[in-house]
């Protein structure tokens, strides 16, 4: 097994290789505006670090969000393209699950990432491997009662200490954690979902309401 894992659902552009036993190479850079520019060089970098070629990859793992439309689709389109070119399966993993796995907590907690617009993408967990709620997007104040008293991880939690007073790192997802979680689930015989994006809301850029289509006569 050689899994190529990547995620662009948060400001982190993160890539890792997992050989079935553990992560053998990884790269993470935080830059919310350069996902498309940074992702392919990061993939080249981890392959070079591992001394392997792309055609050695037997499966692709990609974070499916939730996340902003533009950043998230960079990773998803790249994963789909590699899957088709290499003829290997592409597995989707919820980005919040990757953060939860990296948190390595064995009691209830919350994962919250920054959704912009003064909102967070979030979910509650029983432990680092067990999600209790579906991913959602809300204003922190609106979920204060649901998350009260719980530890929290993720950039969204760190941004809103009034709602998440027990927030701590990890701040962003890492492809290394995503790869370890996917490898663990695959080894247990679980079927990972297809890489369908969790956008949860419409993209920020939209066609103006009064936009007029002009056609040539």
Write structural notes for this entry.
- The chain is α/β, with parallel strands linked by helices.
- The chain has six helices and eleven strands.
- Strands 6, 7, 8, 9, 10 and 11 form a six-stranded mixed beta sheet that branches.
- Strand 10, helix 5 and strand 11 form a beta-alpha-beta unit.
- The longest helix has 18 residues.
- The radius of gyration is 18 Å and the shape is globular.
- The N and C termini lie far apart (58 Å).
- The model has no long low-confidence stretch (mean pLDDT 94).
- InterPro entries: ATPase_NBD, Gcp-like_dom, T6A_TsaB.
What attributes does this structure have?
217 residues; alpha/beta; five-stranded mixed β-sheet; 11 strands; 30% helix; globular
Brief overview:
It is built from six helices and eleven strands. The chain is of the alpha/beta class and 217 residues long.
């Amino acid at each position: 097994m050689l899994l190529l894992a990547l995620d662009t659902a948060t400001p982190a552009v993160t890539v890792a290789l997992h050989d079935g036993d553990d992560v053998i190479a990884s790269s993470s850079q935080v830059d919310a505006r350069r996902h498309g520019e940074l992702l392919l060089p990061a993939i080249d970098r981890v392959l070079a670090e591992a001394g392997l070629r792309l055609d050695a990859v037997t499966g692709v793992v990609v974070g499916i969000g939730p996340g902003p439309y533009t950043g998230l689709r960079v990773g998803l389109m790249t994963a789909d393209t590699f899957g088709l070119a290499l003829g290997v399966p592409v597995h989707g993993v919820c980005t919040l699950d990757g953060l939860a796995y990296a948190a390595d907590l064995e009691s209830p907690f919350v994962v919250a990432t920054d959704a912009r617009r003064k909102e967070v993408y979030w979910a509650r967990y029983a432990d680092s491997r067990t999600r209790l709620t579906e991913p959602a997007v809300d204003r922190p104040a609106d979920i204060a009662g649901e998350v009260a008293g719980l530890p929290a991880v993720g950039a969204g939690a760190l941004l809103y200490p009034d709602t998440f007073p027990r927030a701590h790192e990890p701040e962003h997802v890492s492809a290394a954690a995503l790869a370890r979680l996917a490898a663990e689930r695959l080894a247990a015989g679980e079927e990972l979902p297809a890489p369908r994006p969790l956008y949860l809301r419409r993209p920020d850029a939209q066609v103006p309401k009064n936009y007029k289509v002009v056609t040539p006569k």
